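Dear colleagues,

For the upcoming journal club I promised to circulate an example of a predicted protein-ligand complex. I picked one with S-adenosylmethionine because it came up in last month's discussion. The inputs are reproduced below in full, followed by the predicted structure.
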Amino acid sequence: MEACGRILLARGKPCRNLKEAAETFRAPVDYAAAFGSDRPVELEVGCGNGGFIAELARRVPEKNYIAVELCTNVVLTAMERIVREDIPNVRFLNIPAEILACYIPPHSVDRIYLNFSTPLPEAGREKQRLTSDRFLAIYKQLLKEGGEIVQKTDSAPFFDYSLRKFRENGFEVKDVTYDLHASEWAAENIVTEYERNFSEKGCRICRAVAVYQGERGA
Ligand SMILES: C[S@@+](CC[C@H](N)C(=O)[O-])C[C@H]1O[C@@H](n2cnc3c(N)ncnc32)[C@H](O)[C@@H]1O
């Protein structure tokens, strides 16, 4: 963790009560200080071992990336990869996405990637799904008008739920596919760790883009 400290922007919860933290605590990231440049910023929420964000950052050096991950052991692996591979444009938040607005300045983000978020089909866990009303309200605080959420999942029921939630929350949905690897977007696709596992088992991958409409879609 020490060796990776320079690319870790924040860690843990600012106070025990997440709801209170989300509403009251503010420590906005100074992008210019964090990255040494003021380039467009994109987020990945639930980055896992960091394979996707490492490859994306390598392919698009003219953007800056913040990878968000709840689990400390997992984020450590991701950070070690970025340090080892000497990728200059990725930083990390080791926090629950519930408190993203504490750290990400309002309407400062161009794109949010949600790669293989856990579907959590049990009714009682809806609030924890990363495309529930609660999280979409958070992403709306972070995204610029015209900014996008790009979702990939192997779970068609979770995908259908997410498409419905995007629309109900005023996002415009586009570029929908239920078979990404056979689609026109296959060539540019960066395969994540979970995606590789699922497709090796024969699962089809769903993918869509949800565009934030600003106040019009409020
Ligand atoms: C199923 S894994 C997918 C990992 C990676 N995106 C991939 O496609 O290989 C989901 C990841 O999201 C993280 N996660 C789940 N809920 C989260 C939350 N509320 N905030 C931040 N990370 C979260 C988990 O710890 C886990 O690493």
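Two points we might discuss: The first strand starts at residue 8 and ends at 11. Residues 72-84 form the longest helix (13 residues).

See you all on Thursday,
B. R.
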